[in-house]
Amino acid sequence: MAKHRKQTRTQRLAVRAAIGVLPMTAIVTGGTIAQAAPTPQFIAPQPGVTTPPNPGATVPAPDAPTRQPGVTTEPPPMTYVAPEDDARGVAPETDYLPTRQVPQRDYVAPLRPETLHAPEPTPPVAEIVPPDRTLRAGDLTMDAPEFLTLDQINQANAATAGPEADISQFARSVGVAPSRADMVAASAVAGAVQGAVIGCAIGSTLQIVTVIAFPLTPLTCLTWGATGLVAGTLIGAGMGGLK
């Protein structure tokens, strides 16, 4: 009984293999027959089987490129728009990919308060990924120290890239041109990081000077750092709108 089952499986595998080989065999065989076929004048037309060639038909050259139906090549996403389109709120297609490179623009639309309005639905903006081994926080960029691993660098960049994309999306939703929205977001994130560092340093210094009896605690750094972060974000966003 087991032997019979084993033979059945073997037969099934053989049948599947034969079926899988049939398309390739047909292609190869058809190509071989086409190349080995005699010249047309020795082939007698058969009613219902062979169709005589149309004398007026154009026969493509043997080396002419052919297109396969259903196979298309997508064009690369647009990375640039004209200044007048940017001013109307049109953004490059790369702005809406999962990630994008640091924008390289030679033009930034001015901030026009008269065009601002209530937030409207706006597609998410792609996060900016800096070059390899580069730390980026908005307008702030620096070479990553050698002791940082690639994962640590990516985590640090992701921590600021997400908020930057959110700020740019919100700015666009209220009528800010995409190029200006990116600048506002980059300046806001840079200001937030600088404000947090300055606030932490000031808070720690004041604690050391005024309360020497108590050891320096991370709570003071976090409290003053958070205050500096908010202030730096607002100042940075304002500067980004005026640059």
TrEMBL record:
Keyword Signal belongs to the record: yes
Highest taxon listed in the record's lineage: Bacteria
Signal peptide: 1-36
Region (Disordered) location: 43-85
Keywords: Signal
Protein name: Secreted protein
Species annotation: Nocardia uniformis
